[in-house]
């Protein structure tokens, strides 16, 4: 494992201050934070962030981006998530699709999508998980077959596709050939969500809210130019992308809203010993996971593909999020009321209802631990 302590440079610390100033100026007084990257879908905020140069930060300047490092993007992402900013519209395109297009996309794909992603105007969803495959991406059954009129025809179903009902495109992992080794024969395809044969159905949480969707692809025709990367190389490409998805601050800061509200709540009174102890444990754990995530970001900047390390960060982060939710429930001893005017009560109620989904996004705990274990097994001691 490549984890090592990370110290931010002076430039990186200034960037953090700039991000905080931006949020203070652009989030209205009394703004109710959202929970992580499933926060509000607000295209106007995404455009404002894009105008500041903070969407698709790692996109090269020649394609409209800032040419920033993975660590610089991590810093801005931390501030956005900690504030519960409405980042739902652009998040998948910013975090995952843009780096994939830079690394694997054709020149025409980069020119078509990257400038619009950087401007906060082009939104993507991820089409990986399936009803019968879950987080085992090698088990996907969605197929793409050669069409007699050119291109490919896609059939299959994807689930847990965040904001697919409001995105422009979805990148679908599908099987383009049958192989004894199920890790081979997979490809990634860019699909316009307005294409004939694409049907998007909501998957509601217990509280009736809706971020996830099921996407059914029924004889959806795509062109050869819509293949992302190399036909048959989808597994290697997705593995590379997951280092971006699994190690970011969105894997441990989704519940920062209720945590911050709780700290403000007890600050107005004399905290009890159990409350102080709980906040101390949570803070120490958050700091440790943050250091691990920063180490992965620095490794990405150095050209590494830390898939096992990212899986470990995601497992630790989402496990911590569940612990935070349960800890806040226990020490606060309140009745959960999502309609409460008290920010802490309403945010905690939302976290309790939707928190279990945090462990699904980016891979289930069992799959992540398997990836991490394989990485540890390959380490030369």
Textual characterization of the structure:
By secondary structure, this protein is an alpha+beta fold. It has three domains: 10-122, Butyryl-Coa Dehydrogenase, subunit A, domain 1 (Orthogonal Bundle), CATH 1.10.540; 126-233, Butyryl-CoA Dehydrogenase, subunit A, domain 2 (Beta Barrel), CATH 2.40.110.10; 248-377, Up-down Bundle (Butyryl-CoA Dehydrogenase, subunit A, domain 3), CATH 1.20.140.10. Helices cover 45% and strands 13% of the residues. It contains eleven helices and eight strands. It has a four-stranded mixed β-sheet with strand order 1-4-5-8, with helices on one face. Strands 2-3-7-6 form a four-stranded antiparallel β-sheet, with no helix packed on it. Helix 1 (10-26) runs parallel beside helix 3 (70-82), helix 6 (234-247) runs parallel beside helix 9 and helix 7 runs antiparallel to helix 10. The longest helix is centred in the last third of the chain and has 29 residues, at 273-301. The radius of gyration is 21 Å and the shape is globular. The termini are close together.
């Amino acid at each position: 494992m490549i984890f090592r302590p990370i110290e931010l440079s002076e430039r990186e610390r200034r960037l953090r201050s700039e991000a905080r100033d931006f949020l203070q100026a652009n989030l209205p007084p009394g703004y109710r934070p959202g929970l992580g990257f499933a926060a509000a879908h607000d295209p106007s905020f995404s455009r404002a962030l894009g105008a500041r140069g903070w969407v698709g930060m790692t996109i090269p300047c020649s394609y409209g981006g800032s040419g920033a490092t993975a660590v610089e993007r991590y810093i801005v992402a931390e501030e956005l998530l900690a504030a519960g900013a409405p980042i739902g519209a652009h998040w998948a395109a910013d975090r995952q699709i843009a780096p994939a297009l830079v690394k694997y996309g054709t020149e025409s794909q980069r020119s078509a999508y990257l400038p619009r992603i950087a401007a906060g105007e082009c939104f993507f969803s991820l089409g990986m998980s399936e009803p019968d495959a879950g987080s085992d991406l090698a088990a996907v059954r969605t197929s793409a077959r050669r069409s007699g009129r050119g291109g490919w025809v896609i059939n299959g179903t994807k689930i847990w596709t965040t904001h697919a009902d409001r995105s422009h495109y979805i990148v679908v992992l599908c099987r383009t050939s049958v192989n004894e080794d199920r890790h081979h024969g997979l490809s990634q395809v860019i699909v316009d969500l307005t294409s004939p044969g694409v049907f998007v159905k909501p998957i509601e949480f217990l509280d009736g809210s809706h971020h996830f969707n099921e996407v059914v692809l029924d004889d959806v025709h795509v062109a050869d130019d819509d293949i992302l990367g190399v036909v048959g190389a989808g597994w290697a490409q997705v593995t590379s992308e997951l280092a971006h998805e699994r190690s970011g601050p969105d894997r441990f800061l989704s519940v920062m809203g209720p945590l911050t509200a709780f700290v403000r709540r007890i600050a107005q009174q004399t905290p009890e010993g159990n409350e102080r102890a709980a906040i101390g444990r949570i803070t120490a754990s958050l700091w440790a996971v943050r250091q691990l995530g920063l180490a992965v970001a620095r490794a990405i900047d150095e050209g590494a593909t830390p898939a096992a390390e990212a899986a470990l960060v995601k497992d630790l982060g989402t496990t911590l999020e569940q612990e935070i939710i349960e800890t806040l429930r226990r020490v606060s001893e309140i009745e959960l009321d999502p309609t409460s005017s008290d920010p802490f009560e309403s945010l905690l109620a939302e976290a309790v209802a939707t928190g279990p989904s945090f462990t699904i996004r980016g891979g289930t705990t069992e799959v992540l631990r398997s990836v991490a274990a394989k990485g540890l097994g390959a380490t030369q001691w």
